[in-house]
Write a structure and sequence with these properties.
2 domains, 5 helices, 85% helix, flat
């Protein structure tokens, strides 16, 4: 079989694939571990970015709302929202329910200890 000439189109295609990174990409696709590691790193980065971004946005929103409390019209609405939130927090105090559950668990434990 004859060797292709030096200026063969096949060599040019191979050179362009190598220059474009196609060879490395094909090697990457053949390695399952490498794909999993890359996707894991991407997922961690996305999760961290989402967490930090939302923290900054919500913090900024809370700061802006505290600045609006002093405004005449908006401040009244912000004060009502704050009062409703405090009222909800006071009405939904779950300590009583936790105490009741602890009492029931103690009764069950005592009855199980007594039956042995």
């Amino acid at each position: 079989m004859k060797k292709p000439p030096r200026d063969s189109p096949d060599k040019e295609i191979i050179k362009s694939f190598e220059a474009g990174g196609v060879v490395e990409y094909l090697e990457y696709l053949q390695s399952g571990k490498r794909i999993l590691l890359t996707n894991f790193k991407a997922g961690v980065a996305k999760g961290l970015g989402l967490t930090l971004g939302m923290t900054m946005v919500l913090g900024l929103a809370a700061w802006i709302l505290t600045m609006l409390v002093d405004l005449p019209v908006v401040g009244e609405y912000a004060q009502v929202v704050e009062e409703k939130m405090q009222e909800f927090q006071e009405n939904n105090n779950y300590n009583d329910e936790f105490s009741e559950m602890n009492g029931l668990l103690k009764e069950i434990r005592d009855s199980l200890d007594g039956s042995r």
